[in-house]
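Sample entry was shown:

___
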Amino acid sequence: MCVTSKLYEGKAKILYATDVPEILLADFKDDATAFNAQKRGSISNKGTINCSISSQLFKQLEQNGIDTHYVDNPKPNQMRVKAVKIFPLEVVVRNIAAGSICKQTGLGLGTVLKQPLVEFYYKNDALGDPLLTRERLLLLELATQEQVEEIIHLTLRVNEFLKDFFGKCSIILVDFKLEFGLDSQQQLLLADEISPDTCRLWDTATNDPKDRVLDKDRFRQDLGNVENAYQEVLERVLKTVEANAA
């Protein structure tokens, strides 16, 4: 399988076409961005770490009946994936209040939500990725009513699995972002990545609001030791995968 052309370069990955039309190659970058790319930097080895974490989690999800775009890994920082038409939506799940929801609602950081909150954001940099109501989502024809319902159903299943999995890693899953797409058969697949770039992850070993952070908030908030935090997540994920297989 050979790369034939570059299709797209985003903030965290480069996507290439291959000589197999339904298979693409995602190359994970070390670049780091925050605040809609207003803050830019680089995290050493981030591409390889995030690719490894995402690959392991996709494989675990597949084993639990959730279809993803994952195929395999030709290199540590590369993932072959099924070609999908991505919905222009970021699907955010919140289990604990943090980040923008605290600023927008006044909820205190760390407030445990009575039930998971699923939110949709419009993937549009020019508009600042705004929060969408379901009515606006349907008005813009970003997805059908049936697709929205299926996305919510799958998202909540992913949340239940990830909360349990990360719990075994001694990590609290605070919130996270998912993306979905349709393959050539119009099957809904979980796509993009699941990593410290797209999740808020807190170490259960400490309540210190800075020391517990194991995700991109370390970069956003200039907390330092970003690579070490990402590497710690990878090591715990690998350990838990190994324990699950035993």
About this structure: Residues 145-168 form the longest helix (24 residues).
